[in-house]
Specification:
Elements lengths: L4 H28 L5 H30 L4 H27 L8 H21 L1
Helix pairs in contact: 1-2, 1-3, 2-3, 3-4
Length: 128
């Protein structure tokens, strides 16, 4: 199967994101586990979970882009997933690592972008 350029681009982004989330998850399990309390570790792990699951989702959207090559909505959705998961997850990672609770105020922005992205993806699947 030949992949179009947008599909390749998002597959590469998702692949790199998966490598990053594995490294960040390992850092949480081995590096910061002993220096933060259980509540902060749970916050960190929430970032890892959202990062991981939305990276898997980005793989799916990247493949959908190959089947809907002219869908600007799917490309928008892929970017929103990428941006949203990074805002969501990295705000939580930094909140824990830097002990800056104010960063938690940024997290819902990422979550909102993720919700919008998945609604757009649903729309494309059902309507386009």
């Amino acid at each position: 199967m030949t992949l179009n350029n947008n599909s390749k681009k998002f597959l590469a982004i998702a692949s790199f994101s998966m490598a990053i989330v594995i490294a960040i998850g390992a850092f949480g399990a081995h590096g910061i586990k002993s220096i933060v309390n259980d509540n902060m570790l749970q916050i960190y792990n929430t970032g890892v979970e959202y990062h991981f699951y939305n990276t898997l989702g980005l793989f799916i959207v990247a493949f959908l882009i190959n089947f809907y090559p002219n869908s600007k909505k799917l490309i928008l959705s892929a970017w929103l997933i990428f941006i949203g998961m990074n805002i969501f997850s990295f705000s939580l990672y930094l909140l824990v690592i830097l002990t800056m609770p104010i960063l938690g105020a940024i997290t819902p922005i990422g979550g909102t972008l993720l919700i919008i992205a998945w609604i757009i993806t649903t729309y494309v699947i059902l309507k386009d």
